[in-house]
Write the structure tokens for this entry.
Amino acid sequence: MDPDFQYDVQELSETLESEHVEWEYATKNIDWYTQDTLFFQFT
């Protein structure tokens, strides 16, 4: 895999994981939180 592409994929993966952790926390611990939908497109 091209090193630049590998870096981009790793950054995306880490960002999505971080967002997921925050989403899990919010859905369990913040009473006013509502779920949002995110759409990603890879081109």
Notes: The two ends are 17 Å apart (CA to CA). The chain has a mean pLDDT of 84. DSSP finds one helix and no strands in the chain. Helices lie at 3-29.
